[in-house]
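Homework help board

Subject: predicted structure for assignment chain

Our instructor gave us this sequence and asked us to write out the predicted structure in token form, then describe one feature. I got the tokens but I'm not sure how to describe them. Can anyone check?
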Amino acid sequence: MKVISYNLRKHRAAGELEALVNEHGADVLCLQECDVSALPDRVGDLVLAQATQGNRLGLAVYYRENTFRLHSLRAIELKKSLHDRMLKPAHERVMGVRLYDIDDGREMIVASFHAAPLTALNSLRRNQIRSALTELERLGPGIPILMVGDYNYPVFKENLGQTVRDHGYTLTLSDERTYTRYRVFKGHYDFATSEGFDIDSIRTLPQRASDHRPILITARLE
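My token output:
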């Protein structure tokens, strides 16, 4: 299974999506910072599962409908940062979908995630990640979970990695930095946490209109 995660930078990179999906043969597309009202029902061969509704800048998940059947979905609110409370950019920071693989009859949960911005503490983002994974488990106990997106966590990843492991998940970074526009903020922002998946690779794709580079996750169920 190939999953692309992309922070669109306030929807600026939306015009790249169809070419991106077609070029890499994506099966699932997870978006952050998208204008929900402007999203198409389809991107290439992928169909929109759902997008968040309460955000100024939302999340969305697309999937390949000849490979998967949509079972259920859930938008999740997480503990808010001061930035969220004052500017109200995001009520829901996780968009999770439960998919049924038509060919092998197995189920999985794939989620698009966007953590609080860098103005918040890393401890808050760790809290958000733990809470997000716990809430996703409610979509289907025991079902493999893959959560990808913008974690806004460029430094001190050893603490994050330990938090994720303590929760029973694996943290996987991409092969190159995903945010390079401003030197002081360079680093790996976009990556994956998973349980029940073998992550073959996470490849950082070329930068275009967004200040984030998209990532391509190649994974399979254990």
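Reply (TA_rk): Your tokens look well-formed. For the description, you could write something like this. The helical segments are 17-24, 82-87, 122-137, 157-166. That's the kind of observation they're looking for.
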